[in-house]
Amino acid sequence: MSTLSLAVRDSSTMLRRNLLHARRYPSLTLNLLLTPIMLLLLFVYIFGDTMSTGISGGGTGRSAYIAYIVPGLLLMTIGSTVVGTAVSVSTDMTEGIIARFRTMAIHRGSVLVGHVAGSVLQSVASVVLVGAVGVAIGFRSTDATPLEWLAAFALLALFALALTWIAVGMGMASPNAEAASNNATPLIILPLISSAFVPVEAMPGWFQPIAEYQPFTPAIETLRGLLLGTEIGHNGWLAVAWCLGLTVLGYLWSKAAFDRDPK
Questions:
Q1: What is the mean pLDDT of residues 14-29?
Q2: H-helix or E-strand containing 22?
Q3: 3-state DSSP percent of the chain in helix, strand and coil, to 5
């Protein structure tokens, strides 16, 4: 069997393993998924009318705020979902299964690929679910063309891949599952201080650079532009650059930690 065939076979096996874990222990994924759903319902039905007036400058009701907030919540869903990946990787490390895999005749990279592929699939499924909730409460994207929908899906998948590799690195570097969950908390906090809920220009001047120069804001603005037809500007290439940079960083970090001899 060629090296490529071996890698594909073993990666598929590890992917099935991680999907089985997610199916047998869904509580972690569901708990993390509830965060963006609850925020969506809270901000739309409690703050929606007021926030919509502030953003649109008129009394358009909460429909304008639903359109504004859903793209940000879709990306926040990815950040929430990959926290479970960090916990899962850390659990594998601390329970000794990774050490066992190192002694077996399997492709070394398949362990990480299985975690990453499984997490990306879970993230996409979570995004679809949160998107369905958004549509159910009034979100519409009637002006987006099929090409823009395809680009939006590609951006979400690329963003999920980038954050997953970062989460895998966090899990590999954490001494236990609790530490992994804490270390991955910024992936949930960063969307809260981005343009997900209010425009950057509406924030205090000293805070605007914090919100603007981070990975979530350009990705949110790009997704918002694709789905709603707003101006994307330079956010498109910034979002792609952030995704590629985080993917490379997370991959190198994870690979170095995995190849390191256990203590």
A1: 73
A2: helix 3-24
A3: 80, 0, 20
